[in-house]
Amino acid sequence: MTTAILSSTCSWSGKGLVELPTHHSSIHSRPHSRQINFPIQLPPTNLHRLGLPHYRGSSSMQCDARKGANTTSSAYSGSAFPSSWDDKPYEELPSGKIAYLDELDIVAFLDPPEELIPLDPSSYNPASYLWKKIGDVPEQRRHRLLSLLNPRLISRAWEVAGMRYDDPKLAKKSASSLLSHEHAATSLEFWKCRTSGGPLLIAWINYFKKAVFRSGDGKTYGRLIGGSILTGISNSYPLYFTVRDSNEVMSTEEPCDLAYEFGSGLFDLPDLPQGFPKPARHPWPFNDHIVVYVRHVGPGVAIGQAWQEGEALEKVPKKLCGEIMMVKDYA
Description:
Blueprint: E1 6-12, E2 17-23, H1 60-68, E3 90-92, E4 98-100, H2 101-110, H3 126-136, H4 145-148, H5 151-161, H6 168-171, E5 188-195, E6 207-214, E7 220-225, H7 229-236, E8 240-245, E9 258-261, E10 290-298, E11 301-308, E12 318-328
Helix pairs in contact: 2-3
Region (Disordered): 61-83
């Protein structure tokens, strides 16, 4: 029986540590996979130094490592084992619910365990990573972020989005071509929104929808619609606002991209989307110079801060509610 001597090397392929055999003589026995299934909870020690966040148990990076440790293809026998790319991008929980890995990556990134925070935060731009991860989530599933992110993480998303302005190229990107005043394929968009909380007087608008549209005068406007009690109120008070470019939040001087200005509500619009009511005077507090400052977070996702700046000059501006997560509705 012919003997064979094998030497091997280990390489990190992004899907686990794989031992690659090198042949020094012909082998008559059937070749087989020589992978080493290392524990998945021990990623490379330099992962954090590279600024590549991951999360134990839910990260797609770790899932890839687990799948890569169990699947491969054989170039020696000519046969192919199942590829990890054929696996579905989700996990079935014991409760029967489905957890999508791309969405869990975003949650984990916004709320990482302390030991997984990169040693050198300056080695990468968190806003750039968040933008990419949002882009990885299919458009039809992005609305799930509204239920996955708790109020604290919605506020955290506002902070991370503020780092976008450190990258000139990233700062030019927009969550929507309509919001960036560029030529858009559609002149009407609907967005689902959730706030991170607020005073009792407006707690009933924690979940709502907004519409953004381009009018005949070439300007962009919006309107708050839908969402529990707001549905009935919006029939009598349409809650229109104007959309304009803005570089900073007036009260804090923090950078932003847009400002939604509610004004009095009595806008002279040349035309309206079909079925939209005529503008009417806003009820309180929306008539007290309410401005929502908006930051682009990722494709089809934006985050805002609502401020009640007051009509009276001596009035001190205050936040109307917590941060507002906005996700474009692709339905």
